[in-house]
């Protein structure tokens, strides 16, 4: 008997389903694409239990005859591709002819369709790839496809599905993508018998963006006027730079009506915002690209999420120039490129200065502290010039009053080593470890990033950001063990309009937010209400902080640690975000040192970065050849 066997049709379809059908959202994607290709003007998506129990997509498109409906269940059967030459000019969303048979092979499948103007339609039932029934039926014009009990015959695949709320969020995200790609089409989403949204068709993309992203964001949209190059054109909308976030989940790019992901386009959007957003953040954007199909290959990814451009530099430059032109103030049209880059800072409120410095200035103003420049202005002219040039806090007496006389017998480096070695041995009656605090003399800030301290045997550099991370992290852990961190109610609750996936993530970990002193709850749709924050947390922009925290959760969601998302991991994420806002100021240094050495592990952050770095005199002598 030959070792090589030809797979039967059912098994071949189930294998193909491994590429096409990953989760209920994949089923929705394939069926909605077929509806749009059929010319539908109204698409209704209905799901139950996150799509695992039912996915139903109904449209008013052209429909199919009995013969075409039967052929649609065959593998590699399509009406959208006839010759190999057409591969270079694909304009439809689907064209492989594998979606319908693949879905039918892993679900209890029902297809009801009727051509426009026909008297009767056709109904076909398939169970796990096996044809059960074909009959005439009185159905409205268009097509309705149901997929029940997804993966009922492939339990190995079903166990990889997430919670129903997560799967439901992915389905809603997919429908939102198609609603943005085709704003002229009406989209209705029904989840467990309730209408999640019903978006009427419109020719104004801003109306569709407003219906999905919220009125607050829509009110600040900046239009990117249509610009063209041979074979391609682009237009869209962006938000000001203060809406830039760490992740790219707020970027929506559509190529010839197809939602895509492409690194070159992401870089182009950042290039357009150059000088106006912080390093590592990404702007919010909705971009629609029209391109000659011969200049792009859409057949390089099984799910068609990624494409390959034949002229990637052209499309990248076109998008960057279009965004830059939209952000450019009207009075800076004739500025030089260098001046234009500087002037771009006025567009979104963020300049090219270092992110940590900006954060420290914002927080210091919030906490009521005076900036160094403000204090310098209050000093006598003769004093301020010397002190500012020396890089020390303008008020010498403040620095002296907070410095501790160097009365340590062992050298600072030895104190560090001894503390680390003895840390596991020493403890208070409550079981808490104790670390002896070395004595330092405060010298001053270094480039607004570090605090320089003098010990008996050298120089010590304190990283205020890392120190604050350690303090906040342990405060959160101790608060959770003691029944929760003390929180302070907000006078006016903050409403945070999130992406549907982000909202699902926040609500799934609602208890962790509560342990950290943050009260979050659903406010309808994908809007989250924040009614309290930790009492120790003083932020000028709660929205930005929470967006960063959501990104932190997404970063760990796919890891082993993130599956359980222990409170320690959550606390570490909160500490990282709070630490970024810690000011580098000499008048805060001593208080921060005291709080840091009250911690169990003062010498490192939760992820292992050092809070203090010691440079001994011996090392300095070697550097100078002494």
Give the N-terminus to C-terminus distance in angstroms. Answer: 84 Å
Which fold does the CATH topology of the largest domain refer to? Heat Shock Protein 90
Percentage of residues assigned to helices:
25-40%
Report the top-level CATH class of the largest domain.
Alpha Beta
Strand line-up across the major sheet: 5-4-3-6-2-1-7-8
Structural class determined from secondary elements: alpha+beta
Annotated CATH homologous superfamily of the largest domain: Histidine kinase-like ATPase, C-terminal domain
> Which stretches are low in confidence, meaning pLDDT under 50 for 5 or more residues running?
331-433, 559-565
CATH architecture of the largest domain: 2-Layer Sandwich
Tell me the layout of helices and strands.
Layout lengths: L8 H12 L3 H14 L4 E7 L5 E6 L6 H6 L27 H7 L2 E7 L6 E7 L2 E8 L4 E7 L6 H4 L5 H18 L4 E6 L2 E6 L5 H9 L1 H4 L3 E8 L2 E7 L12 E5 L2 E3 L2 H10 L12 E7 L4 E2 L10 E2 L2 H16 L9 H7 L1 H4 L6 H12 L5 H7 L2 H10 L5 H7 L9 H11 L18 E6 L3 E6 L2 E5 L1 H18 L5 E11 L2 H9 L1 H6 L3 E4 L4 E8 L7 H16 L2 H5 L2 H13 L6 H12 L14 E5 H7 L3
Parallel strand pairs: 1-7, 11-13
Antiparallel strand pairs: 1-2, 2-6, 3-4, 3-6, 4-5, 7-8, 9-10, 10-13, 11-12, 14-15, 16-17, 17-18, 18-22, 19-21, 20-21
Structure description:
By secondary structure, the chain is α+β, with helices and mostly antiparallel strands. The chain folds into four domains: 9-203, Heat Shock Protein 90 (2-Layer Sandwich), CATH 3.30.565.10; 207-348, Ribosomal Protein S5, domain 2 (2-Layer Sandwich); 357-466 and 585-623, MutL, C-terminal domain, dimerisation subdomain (formyl-coa transferase, domain 3); 486-535 and 540-579, 2-Layer Sandwich (Ribosomal Protein S8, Chain: A, domain 1). Helix content is 39%, strand content 21%. It is built from 25 helices and 22 strands. The strands form five sheets. The protein has an eight-stranded mixed sheet. A hairpin with a 6-residue loop joins strand 3 (108-114) and strand 4. Helix 1 packs across helix 4 (99-105), helix 2 (24-37) packs parallel to helix 6 (164-181) and helix 18 (464-481) packs across helix 24. The longest helix has 18 residues, at 164-181. It starts with 8 loop residues before the first helix and ends with a helix. Residues 331-433 and 559-565 have low confidence and may be disordered.
